[in-house]
């Protein structure tokens, strides 16, 4: 018996005892965290329940076999179940595409009528579960759907589309499992942990590609070129009626780097998807985030459009990407069944309308915008008002917090809410150069660009090129670490034209490629999603060499005598800045910076821009 099953049995036994009249005092006094404390969920009995198989079915999934449908199998049991399916069905095969930091194989389950090589005419759906392992609905839904494709008459879904399921992406986080991983989420009763074995949040790693899991999934995407990529999560945050919320960059006219793809998702997928979910008894909604936990009516925003997230990356890489956020307070069963309906409908839509989506991908991949908006932040003012299906709530005095707290009542508010919606806007516009030059010594940066699938020219001999280099003005280190990095922000740069010799092994990254926008976002030091912003060029902040006072003072005196313009500039500064005038060190430093002895590479960002 593995730990997850053992824990499940213990918890089931506790639950049974708790409802028994002969319950012992010790059980009655079970720890408060083992008692229900979440707000209630509205009763639900959707038609999609008919999808469930019972224990008489030899292919019942562990989720279905659990009487409360509140269980999700661990890594080993999931793998064993898919191994059986692979052996029993010619439509299913397992493909390992990576290894986790703790050594677990990361695998995908592929359903196709084409055998090992896909028919390139067929659209591909890639469904990814467990990038945040506690949010695992996609695994349990995917097991059911693949089983029904293999044995229960749904193989027709594969006539004109292929399905790839990643049942668990963050496999190490998935095995850090307990009943205490997701306090805001209603099941499954044993849940994995949000971060990886190395304490990283993989849904912040789409652009910097620090983690082996993310490099692996990038490789899988480059290999199979999915037409639709669905990244499946469960929310935290405010209560509402919706059970399945989903979104994408460019929804409802919001900013997108892939306008044709966003139009397909808005106009073709969304109406059909919402209709399919509603027909099965679900309550689909847009992906939105409450602004104020203490005031549910304060408004909503889009949660950010950044490229570190799957949906932001997909928009920049021209890979149609949907982020599903099932609602954490809805029971695991309701969420899993909603996910099943979503994936099945997505396959159907790809079969029917995949050609138009392919055309949209091609159109967006050909875009080469001269200006690239970046560094998005939430608007100060709402741009629209959205109808919203709210849940009733009240407030009460909490002796624990000593203030008013919200109590969600678990009842749908019959009155529709109208909530202000705050969109995002860019705070920086980056110019697209012809290419970037990355020096050979930054092998780690070059490796990440390669993992992205970037087209690059690698120098096999040193080459001197005329490039624009950026001098960083007053870069600021963050006070806290973020995802294992100390971030560095720079808001001002001074371009300098240089002839720079790049060593053998350096790379030229042209921006005239489908991933050109991503090259700009990664390699511009001011981009909040870039390598510099993640603190990955700290070496440029160290100045090397200095000059002794007995050397610079006489040199400075000669400089003053030889250069009347310099003398005038110095005297103006003395007059204007008394603090500077009183600081002998600062005065000598001012001269040192104006000599060729000064470290010329101090705060000089080493990635060059090739411009016309
Ligand atoms: Zn998540």
Your description of this structure?
There is one protein chain. By secondary structure, the chain is an alpha+beta fold. It has helices at residues 3-18, 25-28, 62-65, 75-88, 137-151, 171-175, 212-224, 259-279, 310-317, 332-365, 443-452, 516-523, 549-562, 564-576, 578-581, 584-592; strands at 92-99, 105-111, 124-129, 162-166, 228-234, 244-247, 284-286, 289-290, 300-301, 321-326, 371-378, 384-388, 391-398, 403-412, 417-422, 424-431, 435-438, 457-458, 463-473, 476-482, 485-489, 492-502, 507-510, 604-610. An eight-stranded mixed β-sheet has the order 1-2-4-3-5-10-6-7, with helices on both faces. Strand 13 and strand 14 (403-412) form a beta hairpin. Helix 5 (137-151) crosses helix 10 (332-365), helix 8 packs antiparallel against helix 10 and helix 13 (549-562) packs across helix 16. The longest helix is centred in the middle third of the chain and has 34 residues, at 332-365. Mean pLDDT is 94; it is low at 13-18. Bound molecules: zinc ion.
